[in-house]
Write a structure and sequence with these properties.
Strands 1-2-3-4 form a 4-stranded antiparallel beta sheet, with no helix packed on it. It is of the alpha+beta class and 417 residues long. The chain is built from 9 helices and 4 strands. It is 69% helix and 8% strand. It has a domain of 255 residues: Outer membrane efflux proteins (OEP), CATH 1.20.1600.10. The protein is elongated.
Length: 417
């Protein structure tokens, strides 16, 4: 009994601590793709269309019939008339050669289009998870910077208070420090609220009711070299929306051929056997009778089937225009997103090589000047708050850069390596 209790306790501990471990972007994306109901629905749709595709390329089910032929109503006798019989009939519809194959090919394109639709939904979910992930990392970093700055301000306030009591500083220095500490508390509360909101959105994306734990502050920049030509080429090859538009054009060609094939006749083959009874009065033997019939449809007779060809011809230009419009939009979005990424990288370079080092240096100089009495307390506070502002802005810009990268990967239909 003791061992069972220990085992139960261990299982409860493991289950309760599953989300206590830090979840990275890869794990979060995997959970979202596994749990998302739309993705599950699209997967089932693909399976359904695969079954329908196999069905379209098979013959219609044959028919079997049984009946009584030439039974005299005066006597209802099966032996009175020679042509009275019990007939067994087998019928099979046979489409014109090649028509079944075209129907199967058309149905195959439905499967291929559904697969691309599934891929598009997966990319959409990946992008949403990635964006929210980087939002949370930024907020974690902002909270870390805010807490550190708040502690520095409290230390500075304590020093100012001591100097005020010693008569070497003004009371306004202490009051100013108190105001900045309070303002920092407002920022911390704001960041915490934004983080809770982002975690709630992320939980919804994962279809997860348990509380998520995401405390990482490791926010790094993707430094891969980006080429607009390569990005456009990858998009033309892999973007699901473009692939769907391209498949629609190919499907239209098959459907035009299928519409033309409907002008050709279908055949209906029937084989019947008539069972006759011997005449007991005369002793005459009556052999069974076999009938073979081949019926043929005449779709070309009235010309109605030809409208399908005209309809597909008209749709050809529509499908082509949709593809060209989709291609132009995606190329335009790639160029626009790439421009934003390059702009973000330039901003990050300015922060890393100029703004942040200078702000830190200014902070160190102000601190040393305050200690030596060459600078007043307000100058020290100003340098501290300036450094805080630029640090938060830098990580916000960094998170935005990573969000743009995730947008670009959605546009090109996969990870850029």
């Amino acid at each position: 009994m003791f061992k069972i209790k220990n085992l139960v306790a261990l299982l409860l501990l493991l289950s309760s601590g599953f989300y206590a471990e830090e979840l990275d972007l890869q794990k979060l994306t995997g959970l979202a793709l596994d749990n998302n109901l739309e993705i599950r629905s699209l997967k089932e749709m693909v399976k359904t269309l695969e079954i329908a595709s196999r069905k379209e390329s098979t013959l219609e089910e044959p028919k079997f019939g049984i009946g009584i032929v030439n039974l005299p109503v005066s006597s209802f006798s099966f032996v009175e008339e020679d042509m009275t019989m019990v007939e067994f009939k087998f019928m099979q519809m046979l489409p014109f050669p090649g028509k079944l194959g075209l129907m199967g090919l058309s149905a195959d394109f439905n499967v291929k289009i559904a697969v691309q639709e599934l891929g598009a939904k997966k990319n959409e979910i990946k992008e949403k998870v990635a964006k929210k992930y980087y939002d949370i990392l930024y907020l974690n970093k902002a909270l870390e910077i805010s807490e550190r700055t708040k502690q520095l301000l409290k230390s500075a306030m304590a020093v100012a208070d001591e100097k005020y009591k010693a008569g070497t500083a003004m009371q306004t220095d202490v009051l100013k420090a108190q105001v900045e500490v309070s303002k920092m508390g407002l920022d911390i509360n704001m960041f915490k609220q934004e983080k809770q909101t982002s975690l709630a959105v992320l939980s919804a994306l994962l279809f997860e009711k348990k509380a998520l734990t995401l405390e990482s502050t490791l926010l790094e920049r993707n430094r891969v070299e980006l080429s607009v030509e390569i990005l456009i080429l990858k998009a033309l090859q892999n973007n699901p929306e473009l692939r769907m538009a391209s498949l629609q054009i190919e499907k239209n060609k098959i459907e035009r051929n299928l519409a033309a094939s409907r002008l050709t006749p279908d055949f209906n083959l029937s084989l019947s056997y008539g069972l006759r009874q011997d005449n007991p009065a005369t002793g005459m033997k009556r052999a069974g009778l076999v009938s073979l019939m081949l019926d043929m449809s005449l779709p070309f007779l009235w010309g109605g089937a030809g409208f399908g060809v005209q309809e597909n011809e008209a749709e050809k230009e529509v499908k082509k225009s949709i593809y060209e419009n989709t291609e132009n939009n995606i190329i335009s979005m790639i160029k626009e997103t790439l421009s934003m990424i390059f702009k973000s990288r330039s901003n990050l370079e300015l922060y890393e090589t100029g703004i942040l080092p200078q702000a830190k240096q200014n902070m160190d100089v102000s601190l040393e000047g305050y200690r030596s009495g060459k600078l007043d307390f307000l100058a020290l506070l100003d340098s501290q708050m300036t450094l805080y502002k630029y640090e938060v802005e830098y990580y916000k810009e960094l998170a935005e850069h990573q969000r743009r990268i995730s947008e670009m990967e959605t546009l090109i239909g996969g990870e850029y390596k």
